[in-house]
Amino acid sequence: MIRRLALRNWKSHAETSLEFGKGTNILVGIMGSGKSSLLEGIAFALFGTFPNAHRKSVRLADVITSRPEEKDSAEAELSFDWDGAEYSVRREIRRKGPGEAELRRNGALVAVEPEKVTAEIERLLKVDYALFYRAIYAEQNRMDYFLTLDPRERKRQFDELLGIDKFEVARANAGTAVGCLKRAKEEAERQVAGTDFAALAARAEGAGKAAAEAESALAAAVSGLASEKEAGKRLRAEFSGLERAKKGWDALQEERAGLEHSEKMLRADAERRRNSAGGAPGGAAEAGRAAREAEESEAKAKAGLKANSLLVMALREKDASLRRGLSELEALEKKKAELEAFLAGAEGGAAGAGARAAGLKARREEILGSLADASARKRVCESALAGLGSAGCSCPVCNREIDEGLRGKLCGEREREAAGLEARASGLRKALAACEQELLASEKAFRDAEFAEKRALELGDVRAGLDAARAQVSENGRMLSGAAGQTASLESALESRSAASRSLRERLAFLRELELVESRLAAVSGELESVRRRAAGTEFDAAVFEAARKRLEESAKKEIALEGTARLLSAKCETLRERLASDEKELRALSEKKAEAERFSSALELAMQIQAALVETQASLRAELIEAVNETMAGIWPSVYPYADYSAVRIEASETDYLVEVRAGDAWIPVEGFASGGERACALLALRIAFAMVMAPNLRWLVLDEPTHNLDRNGIKALVEALRERIPSIVEQVFVITHDESLREAASARLYRLERDKEGAGPTVVADLA
Fold first, then answer.
1. What pLDDT is attached to residue 394?
2. Which of 94, 229, 277, 500 has the fewest CB neighbours in a 10 Å radius?
């Protein structure tokens, strides 16, 4: 039995410690409050993993708290009783570096390191993680989930729960292997059918003899070629020296011819340039001075034009500013004229409008006083009428009872008086409304007149400013016109100076090019004289060179002929060797195919035997497991289903599907499509308990995550009763994670509520409600 679970820095659990008891333990809370993390902590403490981590949906390090502050490690510690002893297992996960684990028995250390702790727990409980997940741990949405699947997927997942899904995979693989082996055997037999192995061997032997003869002839040809190449090597060494001497002689002759041509061309170019320049190029320095003076004059003209352009730009900006000010003053003059015209039409001006408004206010107060008096007198009449209308009324003066005649007379007088007062009040209200409308108009006229007087006073004498502004605009326009004329004059002068400067620069460039040509002419003339001296001292005999060249050509021809013979013999040898290799390869390949066909035949027979054994084993194991589950459910059903309409529940297994069925009378009917939500819940709960008892009989635990998913109100009610009253008599300890508050009633051991400030990323807070 699990006694205690403690989590530290595990997702939203900063420091959480829970005690559990025998029976049904309920953990209730809203989505995201940290409920499922507790079940993950139990699985991790026992086996070092949990469903999402085992499926690689998350990494183990992802459970370490990251909000509001990132932690470096997380820890899960679980205490449980087993076989008369108390065990405690603690595991730690770290962001960096390997985790730690330890297992203690009655306080004494039993095992350390994650793998060794897991192995020891599996040995103790006789359950590994895969069996724990299939038999004990009912993950969220997995209770009613099987009924929504199509038959093929339902069969696959039931086989996985029973642990026989590996047989289906092996069976499919065996079928695939049988087909592949059969096709391979038939193909190998087809490839060797009708083959004459003796003829192939004889053909390969003949090809080997022919190849040996060709290789002997090739060796003789290669030997003769080597001798001729040695002789050619000596001749090439002799000719190489003569060839170097010839190349040197030819290079000198070619260099001399090139320099003579260059000298001629440069001399003609220099003469042409001298004639164009009007004599010797001694005037380059003078031309340079003239060009610099022209450039300085051009620069001064540009500076003057730039200064004048800036002046024009400033005058234009000032003109725009003055015109904007003039426009604003003209608008003010117009506005002042409008205000003066408005005040001329207002009787008495602002003072007259204020006096009229004050008179209307006094009139309104007078009307309001008359209206209040009429309303008060009317209320007195109505009060008197109310008193006269009651039985047994008496005179307010003499306290004598008033008879019916007098009462009628008094009532008539009061009603007429009240009607007159109402008529007067109505007239006064109309007069008040008219007075208030007239007062509003008068007050507006007063405000407008007062504003007009203040604004006209503020504007003052606009005319004087307007005349001054117009004079400034006129003066600035005159200055702008003069500056614009000066710009045209400066631009013309600049153009003339720029043309003169360009002409002088062009003449200077021409004279400098003439100097460069004459310098190059002098250098070429010196080089030509040097080459002529070197050519006069060089010796070269053309007849000796030609004789050596002919001897070398004859040796090369003989060498080529011998190389051709060697290549032909080599090609023949290669062809014969390839033919021999092909014949030998074909013989080996066909022999291997023959042996391969025999091996495939033996392997096919063995694969068919394995396939038949897998089918028989899978069917036998499925039948035994389903029989055990059904027998267990037969004993469980009366405890989880309190009614008599369905007397039993079972799993009906076939090669294509698993059906969960209940018995109504003598007939078995599937729960899917026929049973209510509560009936399905009971059937699937019985199935889950049966799986736990059959697959892990020693470990009497059951873990349910959100078991009310897809259940209606009746189903939830039936589940509550089963968890509280009946399941604890079958399963020693049940853990239920839920957000459904109605499952609180199912607790027979401990009841906890989990809460958390999700918006503020706060830690999980656990309240003990037991």
1. 61
2. 229
Sort 541 into a burial class: Cβ within 10 Å, 0-12 / 13-18 / 19+.
exposed
Residue 127: phi, psi to the nearest 5?
A: -140, 130
Burial of 374 (0-12, 13-18, 19+ CB in 10 A): buried
If the chain, 770 residues long, is cut into consecutive pieces of 10 residues, what is the mean pLDDT of each piece? Answer: 95 94 93 89 94 87 90 95 94 94 95 94 89 73 62 76 72 76 75 72 76 78 78 77 74 79 81 68 66 78 81 81 76 69 65 77 85 84 77 56 76 84 86 85 74 67 70 79 77 77 74 77 81 73 76 80 80 79 75 75 79 78 84 82 86 83 90 77 81 79 80 77 84 90 92 88 88
pLDDT at residue 401, rounded to an integer:
67
Q: Which two tokens stand for residue 36?
A: 């499922």
Could you tell me if 75 and 10 are in contact, meaning their C-beta atoms sit under 8 angstroms apart?
yes
* Helical packing angle, 404-459 and 349-389, nearest 10°: 160
* 146/702 Cα distance (integer angstroms): 18
Q: How far apart are CA 733 and CA 4, in angstroms?
A: 13
DSSP 475-542: HHHHHHHHHHHHHHHHHHHHHHHHHHHHHHHHHHHHHHHHHHHHHHHHHHHHHHHHHHHHHHT----H
- Give the three-class secondary structure for 99: coil
Is 76 in contact with 41 (CB distance < 8 Å)? yes
Asked if 76 and 45 count as a contact pair (C-beta separation under 8 A), the reply is yes
Calculate the dihedral angle through the C-alpha atoms of 152, 158, 161, 165, rounding to the nearest 10 degrees. Answer: -50
CA distances 530 to 55, 266, 513, 525, Å, are 92, 18, 26, 9
d(CA 705, CA 742): 15
Which two tokens mark 274?
């001298």
Distance of CA 766 to the CA centre of its chain: 37
Asked whether 535 and 256 are in contact (CB, 8 A), the reply is yes
Q: Which pLDDT does position 750 carry in this prediction?
A: 95
Tell me the C-alpha to C-alpha distance, in Å, between residue 769 and each of 17, 22, 708.
Answer: 14, 16, 21
Alpha helices in 700-757 (DSSP H): 713-721
| Bridge pairing between strands 23-29 and 751-755 | parallel
Residues present in the chain in total: 770
Long-range contacts of 477-485 (CB under 8 A, 24+ apart): 477/319, 479/315, 480/312, 480/315, 480/316, 480/319, 483/308, 483/311, 483/312, 483/315, 484/312
Q: Tokens 């080997």 — which residue?
A: 208
Rounded distance between C-alpha atoms, residue 511 and residue 525, angstroms: 22
What's the CA dihedral at 42, 45, 51, 57 to 10 degrees? Answer: 130
- Residue-level pLDDT at 281: 46
Alpha-carbon distance 239 to 248, whole Å? 14
| C-alpha span between 402 and 428 (Å, rounded) | 36
3-state secondary structure of 358: helix
Residues 6+ apart with CB under 8 A from 257: none
Residue 392 phi/psi, 5-degree rounding, is 70, 30
425 near 375, Cβ under 8 Å? yes
Compute the distance between CA of residue 402 and CA of residue 404 in angstroms, rounded to an integer: 7
Q: Closest Cα to residue 515, out of 291, 281, 283, 289?
A: 281
Separation of alpha carbons 680 and 652, rounded Å: 15
Contacts of residue 680, Cβ cutoff 8 Å, sequence gap at least 6: 144, 147, 671, 672, 711, 715
| Closest to 160 in 3D by CA, of 695, 697, 569 | 695
Specify burial of residue 116 (Cβ count, 10 A radius: 0-12, 13-18, 19+): middle
H-assigned helices in 537-655: 542-640
The Cα–Cα gap between 506 and 295 comes to 13
